[in-house]
Structure to design on (346 residues):
């Protein structure tokens, strides 16, 4: 066991505070990672405040982890001391079910083990990246290419793969019209990746406040959803809409923007249930779908793609002492576009 410093929420809705946690001893197939940077995801806030249901406390959030390998178990073959690596939203799965065998560990039929706010196979709670070190099975670690700085790579482990996965699955590319709802932590990554894939990209945001940013990030068009004319002008336009917002939308209105056989895919997860008139999908054979992170193989594919295209997150680097302030700023949409913790300050 190793004692490491971390920032934890002691109870639901309580401010995060500095503490220490125990990391397990490095097992045969484990990798010990010195964490250098950890992104702050909106889902960290949902879970620390029990917005998605009962949670495990104390909670050390963080599933956008970038660091350097400092020790490996005797059976490890994929990584060596000094390698630049990342850990995303899960640290284990059953590895035996149909989905795991297909490389879809994120949809493990027995449930994957979350990087934090979960219970590992050893019966102990998992703790995430707002900490100095983490021990992870080599099969749930990915390699960060040399072309990516660790600070801008950290958010790719959630925000990057969460948007890359549906863009790949629904075949975003040349000749496809893709809309991204919301230009935040996930949305700005969706714009960059969809643009790099060759799609024609439109941002749909509440206002035009971030229009200049959106166009610089790779969007071809930018519209305000607060303007009713937007929905008239863009009716029947898009092959694919990626919704990154975690607030309830008028899904009927957004479905009207799809072409026949188009798909509206949700990667943002509102805490409240939605209501929907099913004629919104029946008319036009449209799909209302969801997508969650990516498997390990796809996460590595995404990192390699981002390195090839020079894509990193747009970040604001903060110290650990600023985490609680950062949470409030995320809720106020006051970040462009991802807070990343310098874990040397923990």
């Amino acid at each position: 066991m190793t004692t490491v410093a971390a920032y934890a929420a002691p109870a639901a809705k309580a401010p995060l505070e500095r503490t220490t946690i125990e990391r397990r001893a490095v097992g045969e197939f484990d990798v010990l990672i010195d964490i250098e940077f950890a992104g702050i995801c909106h889902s960290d806030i949902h879970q620390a405040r029990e917005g998605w249901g009962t949670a495990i406390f104390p909670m050390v959030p963080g599933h956008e982890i970038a660091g350097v390998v400092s020790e490996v178990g005797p059976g490890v073959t994929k990584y060596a001391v000094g390698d630049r690596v990342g850990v995303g939203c899960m640290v284990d799965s059953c590895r035996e079910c149909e989905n795991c065998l297909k490389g879809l560990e994120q949809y493990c039929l027995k449930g994957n083990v979350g990087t934090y706010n979960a219970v590992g196979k050893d019966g102990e709670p998992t703790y995430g990246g707002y900490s100095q070190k983490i021990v992870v099975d080599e099969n749930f670690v990915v390699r960060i290419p040399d072309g990516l700085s660790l600070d801008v790579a950290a958010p790719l482990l959630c925000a990057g793969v969460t948007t890359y996965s549906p863009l790949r699955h629904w075949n975003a590319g040349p000749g496809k019209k893709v809309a991204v709802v919301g230009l935040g932590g996930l949305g700005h990554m969706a714009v960059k990746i969809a643009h790099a894939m060759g799609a024609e990209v439109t941002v749909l945001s509440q206002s035009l406040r971030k229009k200049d940013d959106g166009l610089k990030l790779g969007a071809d068009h930018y519209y305000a959803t607060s303007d009713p004319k937007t929905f008239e002008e863009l009716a029947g336009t898009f092959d694919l809409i990626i919704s990154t917002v975690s607030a309830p939308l008028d899904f009927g209105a957004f479905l009207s923007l799809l072409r026949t056989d188009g798909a509206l895919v949700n990667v943002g997860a509102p805490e409240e249930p939605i209501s929907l008139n099913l004629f919104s999908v029946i008319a036009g054979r449209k799909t209302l779908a969801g997508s969650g992170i990516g498997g390990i193989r796809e996460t590595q594919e995404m990192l390699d793609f981002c390195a090839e295209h020079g894509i990193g997150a747009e970040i604001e680097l903060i110290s650990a002492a600023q985490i609680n302030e950062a949470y409030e700023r995320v809720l106020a949409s006051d970040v462009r576009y991802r807070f990343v913790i310098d874990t040397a300050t923990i």
Notes: The chain is about 25% helix and 25% strand. The two ends are 19 Å apart (CA to CA). The longest strand covers residues 30-39.
